[in-house]
From TrEMBL:
Organism: Nonlabens xylanidelens
UniProt domain TGS: residue ranges: 279-362
Family that this chain belongs to: Belongs to the TRAFAC class OBG-HflX-like GTPase superfamily. OBG GTPase family. YchF/OLA1 subfamily.
Pfam families in alphabetical order: MMR_HSR1, YchF-GTPase_C
Biological role: ATPase that binds to both the 70S ribosome and the 50S ribosomal subunit in a nucleotide-independent manner.
Gene3D superfamilies linked: 3.10.20.30, P-loop containing nucleotide triphosphate hydrolases (3.40.50.300), TGS-like domain (1.10.150.300)
Binding site for ATP: N10, V11, G12, K13, S14, T15
GO molecular function: ATP binding; ATP hydrolysis activity; GTP binding; metal ion binding; ribosomal large subunit binding
Protein's UniProt name: Ribosome-binding ATPase YchF
Source organism, top-level taxon: Bacteria
Presence of the UniProt keyword Metal-binding in the record: yes
């Protein structure tokens, strides 16, 4: 699962990538600095791991990770091949969620490809290109389905109806994620198309450091513009945070953040949000060798969660012992949790909850 960073050229995507990831992307003050996507694996900050480490005192601690991809900037006409349009759009199609970066800072020295700062116009430019690309995919599919529908095939007729609905929406400037369809129809006809505007999205307002805490007039405009989208809007002083990330000294980093009014880097919040956007949650294993955060899709069953560790665990799953994180933190050790009768034994049907500490029993 990976989240892609999209936006106009020169709005700070690669700078953001550099705040998040140890892999370094080239960032510079000219459009189309990035051509090939930069891929980074990013640790998901989780204070619960720190607590478990204190309690268990393991040899090592392994956090959950999420993959972030920094993609080339899109411009008007990208869906028709402007810029390096089509290739870039292909990179976006391969991601599972979108972090849409909007420039929300004034600075005459940093080039804006459309001449002035206007995050609402910018957002629309990107949305339209993504929608046009999806429209192309829907039209293509529609051609095929039409033939089958004409023969009276019921499935094909239903699919044609769905595709026509998507086509209308896209032509009217609506993203696929906002089109109302039953879960069944989505699963059967929409998901296989892997449409870009069907992917979950969040907006990241790139601001100057004075606006890192309370935002600015541009951020207000963005919030207003997306209020019906059910999408998260985050505010981050990307440029400054990237500079802070460069500092070796932890205390120094903290001081700089405090100057901006922040307790933790905005990028930490962003990573957690991206993780949620990807529909991911964490369960833990806690042993003296290793305390580890594992990633599963929300809604996974206990055997599926076990399968993340090893496929044998899933195949031979017998049962799982589960302790809630809060319970573990309260009692301080597995033994004490057991004593208090708070360790639960769960079977194949159990739906894993975020923060579960799990121990699997299986045979192979
Ligand atoms: N003042 C200011 N400059 C920024 C900020 N974020 C990025 N920049 C600068 O803007 C320029 C472009 O940043 P990049 O991160 O390379 O932009 P990009 O979106 O990756 O651009 P492309 O790869 O060309 O699409 C660089 O000179 C950055 O230093 C910011 O928050 N404030
Ligand atoms: Mg870039």
């Amino acid at each position: 699962m990976k989240a892609g960073i999209v936006g106009l050229p020169n709005v700070g995507k690669s700078t953001l990538f550099n705040c998040l990831s140890n892999a370094k992307a080239q960032s510079a003050n000219f459009p189309f600095c990035t051509i090939e996507p930069n891929v980074g694996v990013v640790n998901v900050p989780d204070p619960r791991l720190k607590k478990l480490e204190e309690l268990v005192n393991p040899e090592r601690v392994i956090p959950a990770t999420v993959e972030i991809v920094d993609i080339a900037g899109l411009v008007k006409g990208a869906s028709k091949g402007e810029g390096l349009g089509n290739q870039f759009l292909g990179n976006i199609r391969e991601t599972d969620a979108i972090i849409h970066v909007l420039r929300c800072f004034d600075n005459d020295n940093i080039v804006h490809v459309d001449g002035n700062v206007d995050p609402i116009r910018d957002k629309e430019t990107i949305d339209i290109e993504l929608q046009l690309k999806d429209l192309e995919a829907v039209d293509k599919k529609l051609e095929k389905v039409k033939r089958a529908a004409r023969t009276g095939n019921k499935e094909a007729i239903k699919e044609e109806e769905t595709l026509l609905k998507l086509k209308d929406a896209l032509e009217a400037g609506t993203s696929v994620r906002a089109v109302e369809l039953s879960d069944e129809v989505k699963e059967e006809f929409v998901k296989p198309l892997q449409l870009i505007t069907d992917k979950p999205v969040m907006y990241l307002c790139n601001v100057d450091d004075e606006s890192a805490v309370s935002g600015n007039k541009y951020v207000d405009l963005v919030r207003e513009a997306v209020k019906d989208e059910n999408a998260e809007v985050l505010v981050l002083a990307v440029g400054t945070e990237a500079d802070i990330t460069e500092l070796e000294d932890y205390e120094e980093r903290k001081e700089f953040l405090a100057d901006m009014g922040l307790e933790e880097p905005g990028s930490a919040k962003l990573i957690r949000s991206a993780y949620q956007l990807l529909n991911q949650q964490t369960y833990f294993t806690a042993g003296v060798k290793e305390v580890r955060a594992w990633t599963v899709n929300i809604g996974s069953t206990a055997p599926q969660a076990a399968g993340v560790i090893h496929t044998d665990f899933e195949k031979g799953f017998i049962r799982a012992e589960v302790i809630k994180y809060d319970t573990y933190a309260e009692f301080g050790s597995e033994a004490k949790v057991k004593e208090a009768g708070k360790l639960k034994v769960e079977g194949k049907e159990y739906i894993v909850q975020d923060g579960d500490i799990m121990h699997f029993l299986f045979n192979v």
